[in-house]
Structure formats: structure tokens, C-alpha cells
Write a structure and sequence with these properties.
The protein is mainly alpha-helical. The relative contact order is 0.16.
Length: 455
């Protein structure tokens, strides 16, 4: 058996581990992207060397169009270098913001532990005082008399309700025979034998003859009693329950007066204040988690080159690379007198192959990053659900040994969905009854105690 508080702390630990893993995976993805950027730089350098060789060949002006293209590539490279020089600082500033957010989340989680401790202490003090008041009231003759009267009234109401149910069953069973007789139903619907009955003399005579055939008057009296008894019993049950409700309200009022006199009311106010403080920390914690999630998502796209200065640089380089295809580069190399350009083209082919391999690795890393971010988000959502359902209440328990730890391991391993996790812990959740009468003081008195949903 695991308490709700211990289960919440297990979820806290899983979230911290997931957040740390997300940071590691993000750093790995950033490193892979820097390798891709380095390959792009090498490709540009090789293309610039080929452009230099091409300039010597183009002195006679026979291929000015190609020469202009090479010059345009150099300008694009300079623009890309300017953007790349800004990338590290831009990414570092975002990582710094994420680190600050993580520190604030850690601070808030520590503050929540303290607020949680204060709430549990306040509830324990209240329960102890309320139990003492209850023990004192049990020795009070007035309270004992009202409690006995309420118990008697409830018993009588239940007994009357049982009789009502039997009467309804009796009416259903015995009344069916009357209601299945068409002659009886015909006379009943015509109000035969009652003041409201009206008919022509001939029809009245025929109705009388039919009534004599089936002994209608006696059957009508029996049927009326079958119908009347449940109705009267229903009124009696309603009166009995109203009396029991009145006695219950009177008893609850006496309990509230006694608890106020014993100072339990002040302890209840302390509980409510502690609950509000805990809720305020949770609101701030959820806001911090949302901010962290947004920053982590932005860092992922920036590190992957999908946005930010690196994204702009990659776009420029990609456009430049598209201007010079490999066949075009090979054709240019064949026109020059030196064999150096052939070597450069071979190097470009090798770099392009390496780049394709890195891109495949980057796709795999991006998938891992996305999966880890989703796991962290789902864990944070589960923690919010857990606290919203008041499963962290001192009266909450979970069956099945270390069920929460097992489920967390399965979820973080990708073998269990968030919704399945929630359904499993809902089924395993149990609410421990308080040592003293939990009906004491009525529902209004118990509000704000953070009891689990369904208490």
C-alpha cells in the first residue's frame, strides 16, 4: 500500500528525471547540428577554391555567366557566416532562460513540499481536535439524545420505505389481474358506481348487468385499496424522511457549535489557508512548467536549425548549393587545366554523402527529442490531474505495492500511455476513513480539506 503523498513524490522524481534527460538529448541534437553546419562550411570552402581556379580560366571572358554565379555564392557565404556567428549567443541565451526556469521550478517544488507539510500538519491538528470534541459530545446527554432520536428516525424511515416497496410490488402483482380484465377496465374508465358516472338509461342498465356479471363493486373496492396503500405509504415515508433530515440538521448544528466552542473552527480556518497557499504554489508551478515546455520546444527548433540565426544561415547555404549541381561542378572541373578541381569535386561528393548520413542521425535524434518532450509534458499533466483529484490527500492510498513506480517506469519506457496510467491509478485508489466519524459537522464543515474526489 502506497500513500497518496508518497505517490505524488514519486511522480515529482520522475518529472525531474525526465526534465534532466530532455536537456541531455537537446544538447546531443545541438551537437549533431553543429557537425552538419561544419560540413556545410567545408562545402562552401571547396566551392570557393573551385571558383578561384575558375577565375584564372575565365580571364578571357568566355564564361562570364558562370563567373558571376561563383561571385554570388561568395556573398551568400559571407551572409551565412554573419548569421552563424550569432547562433551560439542566441542559443546560449535561450538555454540560460531555460536553466533559470528549471531553477524556479525546483524552488517552487521545494516550496510546495513545505506548503504540503503545513497543510498536512493543519489537517492533523484539526482532526485531533475534532476527534476530542466528538469524544466529549458522546458523553453529553443532549447530544446523545439527539443522536439516538436521529438513529430511530432513520430506522423508522428505512422500515417505512421497505413497506412501501412491498406495497408497490403487491399493487403491481395483484393489480395486473384487474387491469387485464377488459370488462373491469371498461367500467372503471366510465367511473361506474361513482358520482361522476353518467349514461343513458339503456346504457346504465347494460353497465349494471355487466357489473353484476363480474361482481364489479367488490373488485373495485379491492383494487382501490391496492392503489391507495402505496400512495399513503409514500406520503408517510416522505414525512419520516423529512423528520430525519430535520433531526440530522439539528445534530450537525450542535456539532458545529461544539467544535466552534472548542476552537476547532480556528483550526479549520488554518486548514483552508494552508490549502489556498498550496494551490497558489501549484498555480505558479504549472505556469513555470508551461514556460519551460515552450522554451524547450523553441530550443529544439533552434538547435535543429529550423529557426533562429542557424535556420536563416542554412536556408542561404541551401540556396547557394542548389545553384551548383554536381554535374555542373564536374563540367567546370573538366574545363580547367589543373587536376585539383577533380579532387575538390570528389571531396564534395564525399561531404554530401557524410551530410546525408548526419541528416539521418539528426532525424533519429529529433524523434527522441520529441518523444522525451512529450513524455515530460504528459508526466506534468498527470501530476496536475493527481493534485486536482486530491489524490495527494492524507486519506488517499494506492493498492498493489509499488504500483506508481511500476507504472511510471512503463510510461517513461513508452510501454504505457498517459490515459492508461490514469485509469490504472484510478482503479487502485482507495480512500482511508478517518478515525472519527467523518459525517461529523456535515458536508459544509468539511469543505477545503483536500479530500479525494468521490469521498
Amino acid at each position: 500500500m502506497t500513500t497518496g503523498r508518497e505517490s505524488l513524490h514519486q511522480i515529482d522524481a520522475a518529472i525531474a528525471a525526465a526534465r534532466e534527460k530532455l536537456a541531455r538529448v537537446s544538447a546531443t541534437a545541438s551537437g549533431d547540428m553543429r557537425a552538419l553546419t561544419d560540413i556545410d562550411r567545408q562545402q562552401i570552402e571547396l566551392l570557393e577554391i573551385m571558383a578561384d581556379h575558375r577565375l584564372a580560366y575565365l580571364k578571357d571572358g568566355a564564361a562570364n555567366g558562370v563567373a558571376r554565379g561563383a561571385g554570388a555564392l561568395g556573398e551568400t557565404d559571407r551572409q551565412a557566416q554573419d548569421l552563424l556567428s550569432k547562433h551560439d549567443g542566441y542559443l546560449a541565451s535561450m538555454v540560460s532562460k531555460r536553466t533559470a526556469t528549471e531553477a524556479e521550478i525546483t524552488r517552487l517544488e521545494t516550496a510546495r513540499r513545505e506548503a504540503e507539510r503545513k497543510l498536512f500538519s493543519a489537517i492533523a491538528a484539526h482532526d485531533e481536535a475534532a476527534a476530542a470534541t466528538h469524544a466529549r459530545l458522546e458523553q453529553d446527554e443532549t447530544y446523545a439524545g439527539r443522536a439516538a432520536a436521529l438513529e430511530t428516525a432513520n430506522a423508522m424511515a428505512e422500515k417505512a420505505a421497505g413497506k412501501l416497496e412491498l406495497a408497490r410490488e403487491d399493487r403491481q402483482a395483484k393489480g395486473a389481474a384487474y387491469e387485464a380484465d377488459p370488462l373491469f377496465v371498461y367500467l372503471r374508465d366510465r367511473n361506474y358506481g361513482e358520482r361522476a358516472y353518467r349514461a343513458f338509461p339503456l346504457f346504465a342498465a347494460l353497465d349494471g348487468w355487466v357489473a353484476g356479471l363480474i361482481n364489479y363493486r367488490n373488485h373495485k373496492l379491492n383494487y382501490a385499496r391496492l392503489v391507495e396503500i402505496p400512495e399513503r405509504l409514500a406520503e408517510h415515508v416522505a414525512r419520516m424522511r423529512e423528520e430525519a433530515d430535520s433531526l440530522a440538521s439539528s445534530l450537525e448544528a450542535l456539532e458545529r457549535e461544539a467544535m466552534e466552542a472548542d476552537g476547532v473552527g480556528a483550526l479549520r480556518a488554518t486548514v483552508e489557508q494552508a490549502r489556498q497557499e498550496l494551490d497558489a504554489v501549484d498555480v505558479a508551478l504549472e505556469a513555470g512548467e508551461r514556460e519551460h515546455g515552450q522554451l524547450a520546444s523553441e530550443i529544439s527548433t533552434v538547435a535543429a536549425g529550423a529557426s533562429g540565426p542557424l535556420g536563416e544561415a542554412r536556408t542561404l547555404l541551401a540556396q547557394a548549393m542548389r545553384r551548383l549541381s554536381m554535374p555542373d561542378l564536374k563540367a567546370l572541373a573538366a574545363e580547367t587545366a589543373t587536376a585539383e578541381d577533380d579532387r575538390l569535386v570528389d571531396a564534395l561528393v564525399r561531404l554530401r554523402r557524410e551530410r546525408l548520413e548526419f541528416e539521418e542521425e539528426q532525424k533519429s535524434a529529433a524523434a527522441v527529442l520529441d518523444r522525451q518532450a512529450r513524455t515530460l509534458s504528459e508526466l506534468e499533466d498527470l501530476r496536475r490531474r493527481f493534485k486536482s483529484a486530491r489524490f495527494d490527500s492524507p486519506y488517499s492510498e494506492f493498492t498493489g505495492g509499488d504500483l506508481i513506480g511500476i507504472l511510471l517506469a512503463e510510461m517513461m519506457g513508452g510501454r504505457l500511455s498517459r490515459d492508461d496510467f490514469w485509469r490504472r491509478i484510478e482503479r487502485a485508489h482507495r480512500t482511508r476513513r478517518r478515525d472519527w466519524d467523518n459525517d461529523m459537522g456535515g458536508d459544509g464543515w468539511r469543505g477545503g480539506f483536500g479530500l479525494p474526489d468521490g469521498w
